[in-house]
Specification:
This is Type II secretion system protein I. Belongs to the GSP I family. This protein is of the alpha+beta class. It has helices at about 10-60, 115-120; strands spanning about 65-70, 75-85, 90-95, 105-110. It is built from two helices and four strands.
């Protein structure tokens, strides 16, 4: 009787199990990478919107509203500006987000106008 060549059922099932575990691990890793990339993209867009508002505030300090909406990257961003004035410095926090959630924040510290004009003299 000739000897049969090939894999046993146990060997095939073991190879299939190893492949399935590897495929699931790879799929999970891709999912994490995709969600991280989307979060980084949204974070970068929020930073750009916040930077734009802070630049507008530096150019026209008296005419900037305390909150508003902006469009960036196909998304509608809502932002809110909080200012804390003291003698030495003005702390400005711009909170920003989409879908009614202010999920990102950017702090800016500036000198009051009086201290800048005193230093120039």
């Amino acid at each position: 009787m000739p000897q049969m060549k090939g894999f046993t059922l146990l060997e095939v099932l073991l190879a299939l199990a190893i492949f399935a575990v590897s495929a699931l691990t790879l799929a999970n890793s891709l999912g994490v990478t995709i969600s991280s990339t989307a979060r980084m993209q949204q974070q970068q867009l929020a930073l750009w919107v916040a930077d734009n508002q802070l630049v507008d505030l530096q150019l026209m300090p008296s005419s900037i509203p305390r909150e508003g909406d902006s469009e960036m990257g196909g998304l509608s961003w809502h932002w809110q500006l909080d200012r804390d004035n003291n003698d030495d410095m003005i702390a400005q926090q711009l909170r920003i987000g989409t879908n009614g959630r202010l999920s990102y924040g950017l702090w800016s510290y500036v000198l009051p106008e009086e201290s800048v004009s005193r230093e120039k003299k």
